[in-house]
Amino acid sequence: MALNKYMAVNQWVPLANNVEKLKNRKEKEGIGRFLYVHLKWNTTDCQLAGHLGVIFSLSGVWEFNGKERGFQFRRLNKDWRDLIRGYYCQSITVDEE
Q1: Gyration radius of the chain's alpha carbons
Q2: Are 34 and 45 in contact (CB under 8 A)?
Q3: Do residues 4 and 80 touch, judged by C-beta distance below 8 A?
Q4: Helix H or strand E encompassing 54
Q5: Of 25, 66, 72, 78, which sees the most CB atoms within 10 A?
Q6: 62 - beta bridge partners?
Q7: How many angstroms separate the Cα of 22 from the Cα of each of 26, 31, 46, 76?
Q8: If 0-12 CB within 10 Å is exposed, 13-18 middle and 19+ buried, where does residue 87 land?
Q9: How many separate domains does the chain show?
Q10: Predicted TM-score (pTM) above 0.85
């Protein structure tokens, strides 16, 4: 996954998914901008950067800086597929109980 590789070469990475700033190409380097520039996502889809951050953090792939403003993430584990799958399976099991 290109995004996980991007996260690996950086320490703390900002969310950086402001729609207006992305459209004007004034958004700082970060997850949203990476999705927009390198993966060619549209600005609306780049809003999913926040959701990816939550899912990857809860599953143990990334770490969240815990701030209310200035969200940043860093990669903790390169094995994202197994961790995401495990988190998903755990969520399903909890929901079924």
Answers
A1: 14
A2: no
A3: yes
A4: helix 49-58
A5: 72
A6: 75
A7: 6, 11, 9, 27
A8: middle
A9: 1
A10: yes
